[in-house]
Design a protein that fits this description.
Elements (H helix, E strand, L loop, with lengths): L10 H12 L4 E4 L2 E4 L9 E8 L16 E7 L5 H11 L5 E6 L2 H16 L4 E6 L20 H14 L3 H13 L1 E9 L17 E4 L10 E4 L3 H13 L13 E8 L5 H17 L3 E2 L3 E3 L8 E9 L2 H8 L2 E2 L4 E2 L15 H12 L8 H33 L6 H21 L4 H16 L1 H18 L7 H19 L9 H16 L4 H18 L23 H22 L7
Parallel strand pairs: 3-4, 3-5, 5-6, 10-11, 10-12
Antiparallel strand pairs: 1-2, 2-4, 7-8, 7-13, 8-9, 10-13, 14-15
Helix pairs in contact: 2-3, 3-13, 4-5, 6-7, 10-11, 10-12, 10-17, 11-12, 11-13, 12-13, 13-14, 14-15, 15-16, 15-17, 16-17
């Protein structure tokens, strides 16, 4: 259980601050995460990794010579926002392009892909390799849907070593892809992890039982079995991985392999060593030569009691890159020599980025008086939204933990609070309704991260762009803007009705809102009817099996529980429908 924290919503920001303070030899704080303290040679490919916080040493602890150039660090178990990834990449890039790598989770894919597109559009070459090493998360014929766990390290290390050797971007992509294709992992847990401020773990394992095939975001295992002896666990690990060799490895006998026995948070190093003695013996009996094994905490899951085994099947090239020297806060081997003695960035680098962001927000578009009045209503409704998320954060976290990672509540809370703050700031500077919404959307996606952060940010910015700052939007304008937001969410998130996502609630909401307006209902009545449709649709997701996102590998566990994204959407639109009559009648009071 996590005991040492201040405000749970500030935990990720404060841990980054403390991490940088403790590791100034290697890293500097930049917008969105951390980057190397030393300047890298001009033209070297910048390896940028990242994901949610709660996995230390991943991801900030792996930044340094011979490994990553920067790490985008999201909220606990939530992907960094696209702005965070972009900002870290810009801080790390030095003329050689950017290589992105991260675990294959929906939110990370959405946000890293958006950042990659932005970098490419600016003329900075950027490519990605997602890590898909977890054999439990999808069958071998759906290997592209597998998630990344401790195999993150093998891909990151190979890519970082190749970049250090002077490989160009395409070559870094090639060797990282090869490392990913030849990496397999499996993990187990004896208990779940507890996020700061939560009163219970994200999942529980019965006494004397072990969850097999868990993820690193607090997702429960695929199956359960009795807790074995250390030798029994080693046999389960090794047998599982030898039973699924990569296509390029015909026979384990005679192969060389990098092996990682990884602790997930609270399994002691001494326990890991007892397990590893059998892992080493079993691999030797199978004819495998182990090269530079790693035993310890490398990709964790907060305070989870568990472990995982990773095997990277080597060839001569991968062995050279795996064995190459590196020097980071949490992972070192060999000697990187003069690489640590390069010119250092000053401590004001992050402040310079913040100042740049402030200058970008200084000038706001002119707005008509009618739009400024509408902006007051919008801000008051965002205040209602934020209060609703504060009230229901724990409930949403519990729903999300049934088959996911339990971060939905705190993510929505962070995003809504940031959106409200940005809206109030814009309103105080006489912004119109469109600008208030777009600023709120940018702040939401940046602070919340994750899939829901990206989608809510996209929804608000789409609404703002459609509504604009030149008039008080009519009901028909709002309906068109809502439909545009729905289309944008479906286009980016790739979800359809029936996939058990937020789309299951937002599509009937938009359709019912338009139907009610077309039949002549007053806007407030249309909104109330649409909110009811969303609530009914969200409740109906309890009967669905998830086909996307982190809940997909645990589809059966989610039966009987609504989708958290659909449920939170229904809560929000219901609260807004209830508040609208009062807010619209007294718009000035909503800005306090």
């Amino acid at each position: 259980m996590t005991r040492l924290f201040n405000d749970p919503t500030a935990f990720a920001d404060e841990l980054v601050e403390g991490f940088v303070a403790a590791n100034r030899r290697w890293v500097r704080r930049v917008e969105g995460g951390v980057a190397r303290r030393q300047r890298t040679p001009e033209g070297q490919v910048a390896v940028v990794i990242g994901g949610g916080s709660g996995h230390y040493p991943a991801f900030g602890g792996l930044v340094g010579p011979g490994l990553a150039h920067g790490a985008a660090m999201g909220n606990l178990f939530a992907s960094p926002s696209s702005q965070q990834v972009y900002a870290v990449a810009k801080a790390a890039e030095n003329g050689g392009g950017v290589f992105l790598s991260y675990g294959n989770y929906a939110g990370d894919v959405l946000n890293f892909d958006t950042a990659q597109q932005r970098l490419n559009d600016e003329g900075i070459p950027c490519r990605t390799v997602t890590v898909t090493d977890d054999i439990s998360s999808a069958p071998v014929d759906e290997i592209s849907r597998r998630r990344g766990i401790a195999g993150d390290l093998t891909v990151f290390k190979v890519a970082g070593a190749a970049a250090a050797e002077g490989a160009d971007l395409e070559e870094v992509v090639r060797v990282a892809t090869l490392a990913n294709d030849r990496t397999r992992s499996i993990g187990v847990a004896f208990s779940g992890c507890t996020l700061p401020g939560a009163d219970a773990p994200l999942f529980e394992v019965p006494e004397g039982r072990m969850a097999v095939g868990l993820g690193i975001h607090g997702e429960p295992g695929i199956s359960e079995t009795d807790v074995p002896t250390a030798d029994g666990l080693a046999e389960l690990f090794v047998t599982s991985l030898l039973n699924e060799l990569p296509p390029s490895v015909e026979d384990a006998n005679g192969q060389r392999a990098a092996v990682i026995l990884n602790g997930l948070g609270t399994v002691k190093y001494e326990e890991l060593f007892v397990v590893y003695r059998s892992v080493a013996r079993l691999l030797e009996e199978a004819g495998v030569t182990v090269v530079e094994p790693e035993v310890g905490e490398l990709v964790t899951s907060f305070d989870m009691a568990g472990a995982s085994l990773t095997i990277l099947w080597l060839d001569d090239e991968l062995e050279r890159l795996w064995s190459a020297p590196t020097d980071t806060p949490a992972y070192r081997k060999g000697s990187v020599g003069a690489a640590t003695g390069g010119e250092e960035f000053g401590d004001d680098a992050a402040d310079a980025l913040d100042d740049e962001g402030d200058s970008e927000s200084a000038a706001l578009p002119e707005a008509s008086p009618a739009s400024r009045a509408a902006a007051s209503v919008v801000t008051a409704l965002l205040e209602t939204l934020s209060g609703t998320m504060d009230e229901h954060a724990d409930e949403l976290g519990r729903i999300d933990s049934v088959a996911g990672d339990g971060d939905h509540g705190i993510g929505m809370q962070r995003g809504a609070s940031a959106a409200l703050g940005a809206a109030k700031d814009a309103l105080a500077r006489d912004a119109g309704a469109g600008t208030v919404l777009t600023r709120a959307g940018d702040a939401w996606s940046n602070r919340a991260g994750g899939t829901s952060g990206a989608l809510w940010g996209l929804a608000l910015t789409t609404l703002g762009t459609r509504i604009g700052d030149d008039r008080d939007p009519a009901a028909a304008d709002i309906a068109e803007a809502v439909q545009a937001a729905v289309d944008a969410i479906r286009g980016v998130g790739k979800a359809e009705v029936g996939d058990k996502t937020m789309v299951d609630a937002i599509v009937p909401f938009a359709a019912r809102f338009r139907e009610e307006l077309d039949r002549g209902s007053a806007p407030g009545d249309a909104l109330a009817a649409a909110a009811l449709a969303a609530t009914e649709a969200a409740a109906a997701t309890s009967d669905l099996m998830p086909r996307m996102g982190r809940a997909r590998p645990h589809a059966e566990k989610s039966l009987g529980s609504p989708d958290p994204g659909a449920h939170s959407f229904a809560l929000i639109v219901t609260a807004i429908a209830d508040a609208l009559p009062t807010v619209a009648a007294q718009p000035e009071q909503g800005t306090s």
